[in-house]
Amino acid sequence: MKHYTRFLRHGHPEGGGYGRGHVQEWLQKHASWDGEECLIWPFYCDPNGYGRVSHDGRDQIAARVMCALAHGQPPTERHEAAHSCGQGHAGCVNPKHLRWATPHENQMDKAFHGTDTRGEKAWNAKLTEADVKNIRERLSHGESQRSIASDFGVHQVSVSLINRRINWGWL
Q1: Mean pLDDT over residues 111-127, rounded?
Q2: Four-residue CA torsion sign, 44, 49, 54, 57
Q3: Which of 37, 85, 131, 148 has the fewest CB atoms within 10 Å distance of its CB?
């Protein structure tokens, strides 16, 4: 178990931690990085691919810390470090690719880059975009939600949420 934990944390089963201050030195050194390509976080990443770092006594996303070092503190606590490259999930911390954005702006970036996980990209999606369009077509012809739900193997409430555009509203 310890080898597996070390592998997840350090990328090697016999890997150990880095010297005290090593990660902070790396951040300071790269805060003025001038390269155009993505600068990939070389330390621990969470299961979603985002770099993690202990900073100011708490665990934080590495891109947020890098954005603060390169561009100053966020305008509000709600602002997020948004990636212009769309590679945050791959561990990019290039300061040129980072900016402060509201959660809404960050979601719009995800849609633009195709990295959002809504719709059929979600791990637990039971329906495709074609299914949803078919459901809406059948609803427009007066077919009952219960019979449509039965045909697609979903609950009637799911069909109702699709009909009211609470779910799959962007289609």
Answers
A1: 82
A2: negative
A3: 37
